[in-house]
Design a protein that fits this description.
Helix content: 40-55%
Shape: globular
CATH topology of the largest domain: D-Maltodextrin-Binding Protein, domain 2
Number of helices: 11
Order of helices and strands: HHHEEHEHEHEEEHHEHEHEEH
Oligomer: single chain
Number of domains: 2
CATH class of the largest domain: Alpha Beta
Length: 304
Amino acid sequence: MTTTLRQLSYVVALGETGHFGRAAEQCRVTQPALSQQIRQLEESCGSPLFDRLGKSVRPTPLGRELIERARPILEMSAELDAFLAGRHGRPGRALRFGLIPTVAPYLLPRIFPNLHKDLGDVSFTVSESRTDQLLAALGDGSLDLALIASDPHPGGPRLVSTPLFADEFVLATPPEDAAGDPMPLADIDGDRVLLLDEGHCFRDQAIAACALDPATRRRTFAATSLSTLVEFVANGQGITLLPQIAVRKESSGNRIRIHRLQAPGARRVLRLVWREGTPFGGIYEAVAECIRRCGAEAAMAAPA
């Protein structure tokens, strides 16, 4: 049986996520389809590639070696596809654009009409994932560009990382809360802070901004979205930090009260990243400029 690039991408994704469901989500296939391809590859080589450990998996020694050999093959395949597509100056397919969940619902409604106006001959497919999954997808060629809110970690694929704009943090409290405005970061009650679930970069940024200790981190409620956090805040069950781009959407209906942070405050820098050597660098720079413009409009439109 001939090993396919698709099978190699599934093996790499499973090795990186350690979970069949998350690997299937990253590869944008169903879990049974991914599992079947992994089983066929294991039958072909006559040895298991992964140890099944309940809900998680771990590469066997053979699996680890295959993953290391597969990564450069997938990278070269992605580069070859981009080279061939770029011979006409424009991609021959939709560009695969990934965004983190704390950005996508707030910027996409602004970004897409402007992208269509500025780059009408370029189409996009969009997905949401956490930062580590987006970077892994850039590495294996299943994603073309990603919008993240942190520096790409070293040791991954060679990436171009261009800053877009600074997204200031604000404090969200119940409407009746008497918190100061602007609020010094040092005066935020860490015992009341609600956080996103593990793996969200905004969680780590909120922890750093509020200087939460490990015990506080364990006590805080962990949500899967900013909208969930806002619902708990609106019901008087805590406070949270929000990025400025989320304020207009999440503070509608006066369910929560927004407080500015006293200088120097806290913020994140949004970045657009893509692989080095792409023939579409000019297009990606145009996408970045469009997002910068949309980000400035979103910041100005958000309530103070």
